[in-house]
């Protein structure tokens, strides 16, 4: 923040210049009760790229909000009848935060985020009905070429064939002439991806269109689009593993995390019991 900004701020706030306090190298801007707002705090909150008049306005608003919040806190603190209950809630929240931070650090150290391909595949097979496709998927090839490209009749022939010779010829042709060439016989792709690439409304309105039409050729004023569907996966069928991987990985990590934490709690309880660190008291009325 520039110096001019703080000259302006200085006219709006009163700082405790006359007190002898250790601010640990920070520059105080305003004091409310025993709370201080420092220049460094405002600098840290300043959005990146904000300069000049905008930085002055942001700083003034930030300081005003800070002052109002602290005044409201002081007022509320003196007028809440059950501070004990609030202190208990704060302490419970603090305990929960500490336990959570400790557990997460232990999980990070002991488990990490690595899940093997074997684990993912095994989970996928065990829970076959859990992963359903929310849209159709296809395997095949897609080519986009300028409308007036020579030898389009050859493209019409090659893109429909899944022979090595046809694939090689189409790939070589596409390198020289195509705007886009996508070979995906070896992996599944969502149909929605191609509804963005082809000027064909049916891909959005008819989920089963590519199951009935394996070879699609459409054109607009500039390009010709070819799409061959070798395999079709309907909506509701089992989601391809490659699209379920990330979800499965998160599930496995969470399962390991829960198992690890439960085992840790069990071990701590057993250890404390054996050391007689747990004392149960029987109520007098029992």
From TrEMBL:
Keyword Isomerase carried by entry: yes
Listed GO MF terms: isomerase activity
Keyword tags: Isomerase
PROSITE patterns named among the record's database cross-references: PROKAR_LIPOPROTEIN
Name assigned to this protein: Peptidyl-prolyl cis-trans isomerase
């Amino acid at each position: 923040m520039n110096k001019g900004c703080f000259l302006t701020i200085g006219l709006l706030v009163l700082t405790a210049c006359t007190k002898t306090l250790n601010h640990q190298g920070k520059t105080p801007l305003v004091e409310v009760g025993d709370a201080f707002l420092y220049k460094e705090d405002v600098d840290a909150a300043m959005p990146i790229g904000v300069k000049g008049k905008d930085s002055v306005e942001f700083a003034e608003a930030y300081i005003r909000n800070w002052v109002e919040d602290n005044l409201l806190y002081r007022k509320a603190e003196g007028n809440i009848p059950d501070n004990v209950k609030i202190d208990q809630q704060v302490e419970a929240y603090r305990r929960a935060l500490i336990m959570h931070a400790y557990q997460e650090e232990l999980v990070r150290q002991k488990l990490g985020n690595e899940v093997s391909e074997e684990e993912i595949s095994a989970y996928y097979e065990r829970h076959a009905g859990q992963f359903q496709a929310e849209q159709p998927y296809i395997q095949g090839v897609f080519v986009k070429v300028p409308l007036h490209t020579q030898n389009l009749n050859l493209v019409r022939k090659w893109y429909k064939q899944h022979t090595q010779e046809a694939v090689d010829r189409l790939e070589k042709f596409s390198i020289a002439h195509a705007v886009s060439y996508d070979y995906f016989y070896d992996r599944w792709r969502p149909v929605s991806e191609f509804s963005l690439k082809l000027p064909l409304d049916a891909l959005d309105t008819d989920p089963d269109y590519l199951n009935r039409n394996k070879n699609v050729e459409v054109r607009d004023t500039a390009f010709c689009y070819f799409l061959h569907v070798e395999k079709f996966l309907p909506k509701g069928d089992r989601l391809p593993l490659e699209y379920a991987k990330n979800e499965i990985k998160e599930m496995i990590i969470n399962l390991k995390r829960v198992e690890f934490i439960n085992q840790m709690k069990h071990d701590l309880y057993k250890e404390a019991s054996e050391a007689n660190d747990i004392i149960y008291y029987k109520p007098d009325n029992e």
